[in-house]
């Protein structure tokens, strides 16, 4: 993100407004160019350092755009404030009359965060082209991990979100990652950065998939949740072999002693596959973690229960 000082628009205005394509912004040197009015007859591209002042002025040109999403803008503003936003080449687009076609949420995020960043600005687009903007498929965290060369990218992306909430002891962030909250949503840059902090999650995904490779036990626990549980167990001090033994028994039902708490857990999980009451993600994770605590200490149970008003069984 650019770190140059803020400069009022009046300081940036060139003496001759007719030179709107070639006059550099004072605060950005020869890298960014001033646009007195985002109006052109032909499609034109320039790099502009978008400041809060510019964002405020250009948002006034947003009179025919799609419905504004306050949640989306808040998420982007939070990313800019935390320093996770990247200058990725996405452009701000205006039609020939200077009406904003694309970029309202990024401009509002700049205004809300007080930050600034360099951006390609495209002017002179036919107004009829508005309906074709933002119609492509948005890249997911899994897609970005795949492009970065990561294996098991779909499972890995989900595990990263789960683990982020688990470490923070925030079950809402862990079990409802799609919740519209900038503090709980995990951005794509943050997902990749978080993987560098917890590289062992790669192995957790590999182990999880190997334990679920055959049999109907694959349906009992989603791969991402099995990976998160395996990693939580190993991070609590247990060996990888012990963690794999436990999850393997949960998924397969093999090598279980009489009154093993895993038998009760499997009964709950199998019932969940039928037409009865469905377990939500938080309850399923809590039951699996609670059963580990019992099984790993040699305790027996004929029934495994966890109620939502109880503390979540995070492993110490």
Largest sheet features = 4 strands, mixed
User: How much of the sequence is in beta strands?
Assistant: 5-15%
Q: Whole-Å distance between the termini? A: 38 Å
Low-confidence stretches: 1-21, 178-184
Order of strands across the biggest sheet?
A: 1-4-2-3
> Strand pairing plus helix content: what structural class?
alpha+beta
What is the typical, i.e. mean, pLDDT? Answer: 79
Assembly state here? single chain
**Net shape:** elongated
| DSSP E strands, number | 4
Q: How are helices and strands ordered from N to C?
A: HEHHEEHEHHHHHHHHH
| Domain count | 2
Helix content: 40-55%
SS field, number of helical segments: 13
Please characterize this protein's 3D structure.
It is a single chain. The chain has a four-stranded mixed beta sheet. The protein is of the alpha+beta class and 316 residues long. The model is unreliable at 1-21 and 178-184 (pLDDT under 50). The longest helix is centred in the last third of the chain and has 16 residues, at 281-296. The protein is built from 13 helices and four strands. Helix 5 (141-147) crosses helix 6 and helix 9 (200-211) crosses helix 10 (223-235). The chain folds into two domains: 9-132, no CATH class; 141-296, no CATH class.
Main features:
316 residues; 4 strands; alpha+beta; 4-stranded mixed β-sheet; single chain; 2 domains
